[in-house]
């Protein structure tokens, strides 16, 4: 679990939205009892075999022209300020085979984007469509 409670809560909300969508589509899903596996949050039966799915909340960013865009952080470095004012930095990278699909959940627009691992391989982040 993250040291940042808000990030943990939003991440869990994204997972709940993914679970709801799977239930609506009558997809069988399974999740681990404890969160210690690497690279996936759910096993989903899409009808053509079991697939590992990593769920990520879509975040907001501002570019150098002060325009907002939405992204999913895939690999790289996450930085955030802790309660004591210090900065926490973590690096990570998903390895090949760690997930089959990544589900990006936009909590504001209630949309889910499903990306195969091969499309995202080697990227640190991806931008999602603008649906304003």
Characterize the structure shown.
- This protein is α+β, with helices and mostly antiparallel strands.
- 18% of the residues lie in helices and 39% in strands.
- It contains two helices and ten strands; from the N terminus they run αβββββββββαβ.
- The strands form three sheets. Strands 1-2-3-8-9 form a five-stranded mixed beta sheet. Strands 4-5-10 form a three-stranded antiparallel beta sheet, with no helix packed on it. A two-stranded antiparallel ribbon has the order 6-7.
- β6 and β7 form a beta hairpin.
- The longest helix has 20 residues.
Descriptors for this entry?
18% helix; alpha+beta; 10 strands; 2 helices; five-stranded mixed sheet; 132 residues
Rg, alpha carbons: 15 Å
Overall pLDDT score: 83
Helix content: 10-25%
Give the DSSP E fraction (strand runs of 2 or more residues): 35-45%
Question: Ranges with pLDDT <50 over ≥5 residues?
Answer: none
Helix-and-strand structural type: alpha+beta
Largest sheet: 5 strands, mixed
Beta strand count: 10
Strand order of the largest sheet: 1-2-3-8-9
Number of helix segments? 2
Euclidean distance between termini CA atoms: 32 Å
So what's the overall shape?
globular
> What is the H-and-E element order?
HEEEEEEEEEHE
């Amino acid at each position: 679990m993250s040291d940042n409670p808000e990030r943990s809560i939003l991440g869990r909300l994204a997972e709940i939205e993914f679970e709801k969508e799977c239930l609506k589509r009558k997809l069988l899903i399974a999740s681990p009892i404890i969160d210690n596996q690497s690279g996936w949050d759910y096993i989903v039966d899409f009808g053509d075999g079991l697939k590992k799915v990593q769920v990520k909340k879509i975040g907001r960013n501002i570019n150098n022209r002060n325009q907002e865009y939405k992204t999913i952080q895939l690999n790289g470095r996450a930085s955030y300020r802790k309660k004591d004012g210090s900065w926490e930095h973590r690096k990570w990278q998903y390895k090949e085979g760690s997930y089959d699909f990544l589900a990006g959940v936009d909590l504001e627009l209630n949309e889910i984007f499903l990306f195969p691992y091969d499309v995202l391989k080697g990227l640190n982040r991806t931008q999602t469509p603008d649906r304003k």
